[in-house]
Amino acid sequence: MRVRTGVTGLVAAACAGVLLAPSPAGAAQAPESSRAKAGSYCVVKVSAGKTTCYDTFREYMAAMTGGRITDAPAPEKAATDKKFQARLNALPGTMSYMGAELYENGHFGGRVTGWALAEPCKNDGKWDAQISDLDALNFDDITSSVKTWNNCYIELYASANFKGIHNTYDVADWVGEAMNDQATSYRLKARGEAIN
After folding, report:
1. What is the mean pLDDT of the chain?
2. Interval 120-149: pLDDT, tens
3. Residue ranges making up the domain that contains 157
4. How many structural domains does the chain have?
5. CATH of residue 174
6. What is the number of alpha carbons within 13 Å of residue 115 lying toward its C-beta?
């Protein structure tokens, strides 16, 4: 296991890594997540302002759940498997709660950056987490799919500082034409909560 860590003021340091080496014409394509390079699975601990990147999705998921889940399925399945989602949402007393995951590719493939919260998103009229510029995480303008957990919705914005075109999601295997590869900032809020 190779792990990179870093710290910044608001949320995290950049998780480096470029994905997807081109495949020869006619070759069978592996699932996008299996082509992710080392260090492509990053956990942002919001309360600590720390990011740690892992080589495998299982290592990433173990970190996101405080070591409670070490047998996670592939990311494409994890994002849509109702039984696995129920397992994640039923973890009491973990060191962190999964808030949201941004995926580089559609159908939950490629690099992943996930936000670990100190508690589930609350209906308290406040944003539960936010980052004003995803460039700080080397994740600017590349998000194609998203997944949220623990009562959270994610609002993606096309410009820094929560400006420009924006859409709200809970789970989307593709964020749509308007937001694909456009997200530059984001906010997390509780499901059904309206915040302006």
Report:
1. 77
2. 899 998 899 998 998 877 788 999 999 998
3. 4-16+33-190
4. 1
5. 2.60.20.10
6. 34
